[in-house]
Amino acid sequence: MDESDHEQQGEERHEGRHNRVSAARLLNLLASNGLRHILHYNGLHDANVVEDDEEEDYEFGFFGYRRRARRSGGQQFPKVPSEEGAQLMGSGDFGSNPHYVDKLKRRKQALATKIMWRELGVDVSGPQRRDMQSITQGLIPGSVADKIVHFDSRCYSGQFSDDGDFFFCCAQDFKVRMYDTSNPFEWKYYKTVDYPFGQWTITDASLSPDNKFLAYSSIRNLVCLAPTDPADSSDPAILDLSSLSGRRGGRGLYGNSHFGIWSIRFSGDGREIVAGTSDQSVIVYDLETRQSVLRLQNHEDDVNAVCFGDKSSPHILYSGSDDTTLRVWDRRSMGDGREAGVFMGHTEGLTYVDSKGDGRYVLSNGKDQSMKLWDLRKMMTTAKFDTIDVNRYTTGFDYRFEPYPDDYYEPHPHDCSVVTFRGHRVLKTLIRCHFSPPGSTNSRYVYTGSEDGKVYVYNLDATLAGTIDVGQATANSRPRDPDIFAAAYEIRSSRSDVMWKTCVRDASWHPNSPVLAGKLSRLSG
């Protein structure tokens, strides 16, 4: 993860001006032809150098993953527009259809016409009702930035509350800043809470359903639970997620409690927290007893993302891992400790998982540069999953050091996703994706951050509905930092001028207004 890269860079600086490369770093580059791709990516590769046409087949890549041979062409990318996605757009599960069913009368009404029907309040059924519902679902944020908040550290995540009155933002300085967004066009800062003993960064945060508490994590086994009331200045409560029914648990490489937390989420009733860890486990923590009540350990790599299936029930859990699988857990049938089913289709690790909240659809982002929509009714059974070697279909690609070449892509033979979305870039960090909110968009879209500094908004048929260029909107909005080399995440040099680069790691769509907040690693100024 990011912290290991940080340690490797420290080792390299320690070697002095000889610029020696650690063995782990060298193996990582060689295992995926990373050095050549890095040179291409930064414009340092000699265009006159003729590359070898023959590519070797790696039986085992870095970290033990098998590496496929390079494809000779015809990547077989998913069809766009997606037929399955188009059917979903017309089903009513993802927004209303703004067109007449009668092909002879089919036309797209102007926004003014839709507003007229709403104001008149006449015959609010049939086509008129659909028109009123579709007024806001077509409004995708795309104007210049109305508000820019600068920090001295990179922002890793942030979200609006379900009612839109609250917004929090997590930064690498181990602080979570909170804002009153009851007026989404006029934010008011009111509180900051700290993670007093974090490692590398705050990895995630989750707001309780009543907006009274904020849980936030770092690469430690401890979660901080802080009140959001600005009048409450008490220290955050410390929750030890390694505590399992009065004893220590875990099978991790470093023993019982030496693991980090990548993802946390409150349950719909606010009584529990689910966490994904570097210990290859999913942990459910009871806030009343202050103990972990469940530890699920079937993943074979870091669990980067977790969430509950819906807010009305704490029984269904989703977890996405670097082992390329998205697993479904039903706590009502956990006698054998097995997952209820598995979603396969990503060929690299998952970076984020988001539930639509209806107990049926779930969304994931992957390091194979794709976002996928899944239907719970189409998950793979554990019996079938046990017959498949998941490592056979991955390249072992390390998204921290190189771009993802097109010839790495190959359709997964066991892909059970409904729709695949491609075009954004899932590089450098755990890029997040979300369903658009039901209030302001009628749940019409899915959207994701991207390493290229943009937010990508997709229709359900995998076509691009729009992009929001956060990097361009915030360019030159802040004086240049004199300590640029210490503050920047990635630095590009053009001639003698030093430039930064913007990466949008997370984004949040306001639940009631056409407002979107992008959280970015600000690398250009």
TrEMBL record:
Q: Name one Pfam family in it.
A: WD40
Keywords of the record: Repeat, WD repeat
* InterPro entries in the cross-refs: DCAF (IPR051859), WD40/YVTN_repeat-like_dom_sf (IPR015943), WD40_PAC1 (IPR020472), WD40_repeat_dom_sf (IPR036322), WD40_rpt (IPR001680)
State the Gene Ontology BP annotations: proteasome-mediated ubiquitin-dependent protein catabolic process
GO cellular component terms attached to this protein's record: Cul4-RING E3 ubiquitin ligase complex
Residue stretches of each WD repeat:
261-295, 296-330, 343-384
Superkingdom of the organism of origin: Eukaryota
Name it: WD40 repeat-like protein
Query: Which organism was this protein described from?
Result: Aspergillus neoniger (strain CBS 115656)
| Lineage, opening ranks | Eukaryota, Fungi, Dikarya, Ascomycota, Pezizomycotina
